[in-house]
Every structure is written in C-alpha cells, then in structure tokens.
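hi!! sorry for the late reply, been swamped w classes. u asked for the two structures so here they r. pasted raw, havent cleaned anything up. first the sequence of the first protein and right below it the tokens
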Amino acid sequence: MQLNTTVKRLAGLALALCMTMQAGATEVAGIKFDESIQVAGTELKLNGAGIRYKAIFKVYAAGLYLKEKKTTVPEVLASQGPRRVTIVMLRDLSNEEFGRGFMTGIQQNTDKAEKSKMTMQFIRFGELFASVPELKKGDVMTNDWIPGVGTVVALNGKKMGDPYPDLAFYNALLRIWLGESPVDRSLKKAMLAEEDTRGR
C-alpha cells in the first residue's frame, strides 16, 4: 500500500516536472524556443515562433522576442526596448540562397524612399552573407535591436560585423517576415501568435 502511494507521488512529481519544462519553452519542428530570454539586460518574451517553408521544404524555424506580446505589425514595429528574431536552420543552405531570401524580403516590403536612405546599410548587409560560405542545419542566427547600439547580427553566438545604427533598418528586417508580402504567410501568423505552433 505504501509502495503504491510512493509510486503515485513520484509519478505526480514527474508529471509536474514535465509540465513545468513544457511551460518554459515552445517547440517548433523539434527546435525549442525559450519563453523568455535576456537581451542587453532586458527580459524579452517569446511573441511567437513558426517555420519558414519553401515549397514543401522546411528551411528554418524563427522566433520573435519582444518586451511585451504584440499581435499586430504596427504594434511590433513601434514596440520599445530591445527586440530579437532568432533563426534556427532546419536544412543546409548556401549563403547565396539564404542571402537572396533576406534581400528579396527587404525589396518587397520596403518603399523606395526608405531604401534610398539606407542604401549603404543594405549593401553592407548583403556583403555579410558573403562572409559565410554555407549555413548548416542547426546553425543559429540572432538579429537583435539594441537601443543606443543598433542592429546586431550574430551567428552561433559570434557577432557578424558592426551594428547597423538605424531603427528603420531593423524594422525593414522585421518586415521580411511581417510585411505586406512576407516570405511565408504562415510564419507571419505564427510570429504574431495568430496560431498555435506548439508541437509542430
């Protein structure tokens, strides 16, 4: 009798532990995104995460982190404090393919006036991809906005180049996924927490 009670208690503890662990991360295509992270000394919350598909192939999983959860694009673009987009590669991709996807997303979602103001930053951003021959499955890229510093891009924890100073540049990056012509509409919905991606 006492043994049964002990087993039940242990099972209950194990279940509670599993539930606690699940509450601490969102899983997308086998990739776990922490519910909260620290960027520049500020706690950010996972706004939403999803998968970037190209045709039927899973290219990468991406998660958007903000100080407070937002469900509309204008709210995200106007949000205060640090922000982060974390990208985890789900397959190998050449720098040309990955870079082309980024630059096409910017072209399709940024008006001419804005692009002309940030021409040099966009050129430098394009050159950044040339410095990485290939992105491998499991590689992690972070794109941070840090007030007073700028946009900081890192690959597997290693900073890539100097910061990009304009907030407009970071918002142009965000519109790759959240603009009127996003690279993947289902990913846009997921990053805005419009659909549940847990367990996908």
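now the second protein. again sequence first, tokens right under
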Amino acid sequence: MLKLFEKINVQKAILFLALLLVLIILVELKYFLSGLLGSITLYVLTRKFYLKLVEEKKRNKNLSIILIIFLIIITFAIPLWIILEILIPKINEFLSDREAILDKFNSIRVLIENNEFLKRFDLTFSDDKVLQLVNKVISYIPSTVQWVGQTFANIFTALFILYFMLINARTMEARFKELLPISKESKKFFMRENAALITSNAYGIPILGFAQGVIAMIGYSIFGIQNAIFWGLLTGAASIVPVLGTMFIYIPVCVYQIASGDVSGGLFLTLYCLVLVGGIDNILRFTLLKKMADIHPLITVFGVVLGLKIFGVMGLVFGPVMLSLPGILFKIFKIERSLSKKEKAENALEISESLQSTKIHD
C-alpha cells in the first residue's frame, strides 16, 4: 500500500513538473503564442482534407502538406497582406492631415451647437482637445506597424508548426487522448466540442467581417461617401470590436454626412447601416454559424474581450473557446457521473447474478 502511495505521488510530481515547464516555455515564447494557436486552428480546419488525401487517396504526405500550405497562403495570407497594405497607409495619410480632420470636426461641432436636443448635454470640444486625441491615436501607429510584422511572423510560425502537426497527425492525436484522464466517450465529446468551437470562430469571424465590409462599402458608394472602399474595409475590420462592432465606424461616418449638409443622405445611410450592415450579422450568426457551433452571443462578446487581452489576435478564436470550457467540463462531469452510475449498476447486477448462481448450485 505504501509503495502504491509513493508511486502515485511520484506520478503527480512528474505531471506537475511537466505542466510547470510547459507554462514557463509559453511565457518565454509568448511572442509566438499567436502562431502556436494559429497552427492549432489551421490543423482543425485542414485535418479532414489532409487525412482524405493521405489515407483515402494515398497521396504523398509532404506533397499533401505543401498543397495545404499553398492553399492557406492563397486564401488567407495574401488577402490579409493586401488589406493591410491598403489600410495602414490610408490610416497614416488620414491622421497626418490635421487640417482636414479639424475641418471635418468643425462640421460636426456646428451640428451639435445648432441642435436644441444636443445642447442639453453640454457637449463642447475645442480644437486642442481634438488634436490631442489625434496625437494619441497617432502614437499607436508604430505599435500597429509592429503588429503587422508580428502578424506575419506568427503566420510563418503557424505554418511551420502545422507541417509537423499534420505529418504526425494520428500519433499526436493518440498521445493527446492518452493525456486526458477521462473516459473514451468524454474524450470524444471534448475533442468534438472544441473542434466545433474553433471551426465556428475561425470561419465565422472572416465571414462576418467580409459580409459587413462589402455591404457597408456598397452603402457608402450609393450615398456618396468619399473613399468608400477604405471606410468599407475599416467597417469590416471593426466587426471584431466587442459590443460596438461596425457601429464604431459607420456611426461617425453617418454623423459627418449629416453635419456636412447632406441630412437626408446621412439619415438614409444610417438606416441602411442599421438594417443591412447590422442585420447581416444577426442573419449569419443565427443561420450559418449556429450550424457550426451553438455559441451564446454573450460568450462570443466576452470571450473576444478576454481572448484579445490574453492571446492577442488569435484571442478572437480562442477567447470564446476558453470561455466555453467551464460548460464543456461540466457536461463531461455529467457524462462521467452517468457512466459511473451505469458501471456500478452493472457491477451490482453481476454480483446479484453471481449470488443467484451460487444459490442454485448449492
């Protein structure tokens, strides 16, 4: 008994040491954490296609992985690079022209000062306050440029790790399942639920951003907003902002349109954005994305806030996954408890049958 107790303690110590080492490694390599999480996301998305090529069609492993990486670069990395190439210079150009910013702001200030309803809130903004705000935003531009470099570094890291994950797919999955101290049924449930959450967020975020950006771009073009493509891209990018989302961009655009004198155009654009840009979000969430994984909207909102703070960009995917884990673990607890009850009932039945058999023989 003492030897068994000592053996269990040694196993716990080894497990604790292993987890501690993993934690230290993740902290020290936190710059590449998004790349690691990105590789997990890409693995979940490409796993079935890779196994189909290798196991069903008997294709070469290396050639299959090269094909998958090529498709990822074409469909993800290049579009992201193009968007950043358009947005970053435009944002720099817009913020550097302080006179144009003040001119646009003056139109809004006149609207506020002449509106009887808005006068009640005593909203006063001086040119100095506006310039202070602009300077504060400009101070974030270097970090934005740094973020672009970090994004591409993490894309390379994700693709590099993905290669080794795919080449050893079956072995890796088998070893991961061995580490989970739960029943076979619970392991299947855990992996299925997390894969569905990752897939839903990985597909859902770009789909929502693209759809809202395109619809906003069309609206801006119809109602005469200058640089409609730029503002449409910004609106699509703002879809990741928790709570406010696309309103963070299209509300100021609409207010400026009204302040510039095009009252009817601004009001119609506001209605257009509220109904179509905001509406497509609800339509996609309750149709396409709900089929992938039934995630509560509150988990999505607070998960994104939590994820961005902890994981950076990849927190858009793993934040909601992390926030969903308590619910998944509770369901696993219920599965384990039901299996335990079933096992106890079966054992009791076996004992009862054994006793009856003994009586008969006696």
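hope this helps!! also noticed smth abt the second:
The chain is about 85% helix and 0% strand.
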